[in-house]
């Protein structure tokens, strides 16, 4: 099969996940104390990913990455299928926790495999294509998920999501690529290589300290996900404020961001900018756009501002993925595991804080607080990079 089928498989999994987010949100709103269960749903997903990220990075470096992705897809499909048969709060939360673990393993293995499959010289273009495909399936997935949930019920959508993961696993069994042996830096001795194998996590932290750009991306993952958790939590409530319990509008909001991401990823892959500068600048503009969307009072204005925010979010994802994939092959999975741990920790903290902040400051106040923390992190890491690269 063509190597790009690898990207299409990832997009297929993303399609099901986006439909599932809308369906599960609609299911949660049928529960008593829905705000509590929505928070538990998001927290469970992030807690599973947070606890599993370091191990997922080690597994991605030590095992066949294709097989880890197949196992992840199969496990996720079965966990989601359980929700369709037993649509209770506890089954939903358990499935969310398990899927947080499995998605982390799949994502790290997928990201770490791209340089091996396509070569480092094509990474910017490949990451641009990856984000465009994810944006396209986001456009279809969120819109279709919202429409099907309103017209056919959440059970149909959840079952389709499970099928997409199982189909993705089957496609991966038909794909193969050369798993190149791990290679150390040219300056590393044999003893150092053995030390890296024996003390992977500690060595990864030392490697990050010696690589300011990768350390910046890893640490920045916490405020980025803290910011993202705020609008993830807030969008269903924003849709509810504008048009009552309208799953279609909620789906259109995510579709709008996906449209922006599609445009942004296309532009980012063609601009000649320094990757780090591009990532930091696009994240900053994204933060402004998402605040504007929550400040708007009309559905059309909200959707247009979400397109704007999504444009810069998509570009930032292209730059961030390309930078992370430049880590050396034998530590790439572990580096992504550290970044994943910090990212999931940010989501975990964000989803725990969001209900309390929304209750204390209103929905818009919660969003602004999260974005201010994000911008403060951006400024701090910009200063760190400037000083560290001058040494």
Automatic annotation (TrEMBL):
Start and end of every Major facilitator superfamily (MFS) profile domain?
213-391
InterPro entries recorded for this chain?
Answer: MFS, MFS_dom, MFS_trans_sf
Lineage of source species: Bacteria, Bacillati, Bacillota, Bacilli, Bacillales
Q: Where does it sit, as one GO cellular component term?
A: plasma membrane
Main localization of the protein described in the UniProt heading: membrane
Top-rank taxon, per record? Bacteria
Supply the PANTHER family for this chain.
Answer: INTEGRAL MEMBRANE EFFLUX PROTEIN-RELATED, MAJOR FACILITATOR SUPERFAMILY ASSOCIATED DOMAIN-CONTAINING PROTEIN
Topological relation to the membrane, as annotated: Multi-pass membrane protein
Source organism of the structure? Brevibacillus antibioticus
Q: What is this protein called?
A: MFS transporter
So where does this one cross the membrane? 7-29, 35-56, 154-172, 212-231, 251-269, 276-296, 302-320, 341-361, 367-387
Annotated SUPFAM superfamilies: MFS general substrate transporter
Going by the UniProt record, its keywords in alphabetical order are:
Cell membrane, Membrane, Transmembrane, Transmembrane helix, Transport
Where does it live in the cell? Answer: Cell membrane
| Gene Ontology terms for molecular function | transmembrane transporter activity
The keyword Amino-acid biosynthesis belongs to this UniProt entry's keyword annotation: no
């Amino acid at each position: 099969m063509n190597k790009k089928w690898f990207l299409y498989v990832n997009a297929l999994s993303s399609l099901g996940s986006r439909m599932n987010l809308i369906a599960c949100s609609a299911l949660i709103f049928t529960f008593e104390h829905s705000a509590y269960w929505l928070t538990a749903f998001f927290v469970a997903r992030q807690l599973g990913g947070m606890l599993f990220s370091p191990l997922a990075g080690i597994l991605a470096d030590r095992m066949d990455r294709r097989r880890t992705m197949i196992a992840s897809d199969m496990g996720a499909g079965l966990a989601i299928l359980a929700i369709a048969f037993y649509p209770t709060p506890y089954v939903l939360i358990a499935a969310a926790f398990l899927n947080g673990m499995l998605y982390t393993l799949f994502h790290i293995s997928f990201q770490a495999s791209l340089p091996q499959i396509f070569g480092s010289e094509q990474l910017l273009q490949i990451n641009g294509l990856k984000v465009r495909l994810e944006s396209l399936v986001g456009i279809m997935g969120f819109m279709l998920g919202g429409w099907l949930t309103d017209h056919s019920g959440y059970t149909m959508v959840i079952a389709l999501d499970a099928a997409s993961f199982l189909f993705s696993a089957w496609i991966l069994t038909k794909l193969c690529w050369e798993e190149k042996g791990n290679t150390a830096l040219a300056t590393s001795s044999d003893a150092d290589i053995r030390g890296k194998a024996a003390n992977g996590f500690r060595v990864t932290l030392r490697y990050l300290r010696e690589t300011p750009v990768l350390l910046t991306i890893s640490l920045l993952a916490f405020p980025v996900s803290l910011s993202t958790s705020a609008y993830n939590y807030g969008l269903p409530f924003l849709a509810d404020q504008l048009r009552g319990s309208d799953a279609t509008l909620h789906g259109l909001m995510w579709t709008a961001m996906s449209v922006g991401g599609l445009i942004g990823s296309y532009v980012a892959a063609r601009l000649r900018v320094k990757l780090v500068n591009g990532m930091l600048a696009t994240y900053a503009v994204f933060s402004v756009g998402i605040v504007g969307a929550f400040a708007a009072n009309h559905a059309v204005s909200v959707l247009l501002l979400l397109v704007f925010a999504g444009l810069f979010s998509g570009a930032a994802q292209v730059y961030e993925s390309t930078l992370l994939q430049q880590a050396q092959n034998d530590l790439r999975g572990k580096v992504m595991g550290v970044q994943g741990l910090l990212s999931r920790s940010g989501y975990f903290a964000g989803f725990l804080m969001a209900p309390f902040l929304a209750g204390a400051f209103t929905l818009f106040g919660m969003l602004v607080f999260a974005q201010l923390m994000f911008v403060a992190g951006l400024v701090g890491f910009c200063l760190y990079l400037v000083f560290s690269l001058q040494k």
